[in-house]
Amino acid sequence: MIRFNAKRILWMLPAVTLLCAFAGASHARDAADWLAQMTQALESRNYEGTLVHMQPGTAETFHVYHRVADGKSTERLVAMDGDGAEVVRTSDEVICIFPGQKKVVVDKRQSAVSKKGPLRANLPKLTPELAQSYEMLLLDADRVIGRPTVVISIKPLDNYRYGYRLWLDEETALPLRMQLLDLESTMPVEELFFTALTVPGVVPEEKLRSAVNTDDFAWVRHGREPGQTNPPAGVSKWAAADLPSGFMQTTFTLEYMADSELPRTHLVYSDGLASVSVFIDSIAPTDAKAEGFVAMGAANSYTRTHDGMLITAMGEVPARTVERIASSMELQAGQNDGDN
Question: For the chain, which terminus, N or C, has the lower number of CB atoms within 10 Å?
Answer without folding.
Answer: C
